[in-house]
Write a sequence for this structure.
């Protein structure tokens, strides 16, 4: 399966995917890593293993629509079969989603539908939940509202702050995201409307 990634920053989830791929765990080819941020660490991580990179800085375009058209063309040229968002900090427009010919997935650091949007870990702490976690989901036109593929819970401890909770969740993200990509690449993820089922391996 031909997988492209969009990332805006640190890229630790991209790194987790690359590591699992190097271990032979993912039956995929990384066809490209794109970013809206020329300084994204994610780009360096991709270059290190010779994945082609492209940057799409918003400032280079008349507006977001033109930027998205460029990204869509790049993905089309790469024959993308799955688009993975790994810390991509821009919301993809309705135009982008409806013109993408491949599924798009995202990872979010909370148990959706709780705490969508920015600063999910802070939202969870402020609310006082005892359990949070992370969610891999298909991307639709809403903000973190797409059909859920995998979720895993992470405990919230007394005395946690954003840094400690984020670190605990991130460790789980780095396992969950490669597993979701692996299941999709193996054709084991079936989507019917909002319901996503995993065809378990025998
Ligand atoms: C992760 O917490 C992910 O859940 C969220 O953005 C963060 C990206 O981190 N969507 P990284 O760039 O993968 O290190």
């Amino acid at each position: 399966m031909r997988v492209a990634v969009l990332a805006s920053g640190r890229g630790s989830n991209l790194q987790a995917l690359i590591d699992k791929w190097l271990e032979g765990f993912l039956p995929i080819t990384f066809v490209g890593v794109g970013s809206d941020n020329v300084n994204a660490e994610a780009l360096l991580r991709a270059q290190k293993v010779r994945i082609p990179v492209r940057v799409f800085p918003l400032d280079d375009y008349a507006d977001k629509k033109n930027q998205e058209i460029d990204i869509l063309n790049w993905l089309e040229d790469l024959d993308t079969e799955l688009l993975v968002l790994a810390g991509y900090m821009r919301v993809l427009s309705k135009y982008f989603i409806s013109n993408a010919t491949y599924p798009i997935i995202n990872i979010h650091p909370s148990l959706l539908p709780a705490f969508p949007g920015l600063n999910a870990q802070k939202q969870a702490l402020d609310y006082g939940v005892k359990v949070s976690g992370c969610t891999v989901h298909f991307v639709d036109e809403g903000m973190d509202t797409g059909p859920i593929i995998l979720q895993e819970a992470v405990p919230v401890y007394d005395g946690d702050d954003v840094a400690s909770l984020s670190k605990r969740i991130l460790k789980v993200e780095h396992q969950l995201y490669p597993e979701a990509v692996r299941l999709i690449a193996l054709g084991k993820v079936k989507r019917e409307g909002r319901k996503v089922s995993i065809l378990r391996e025998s």
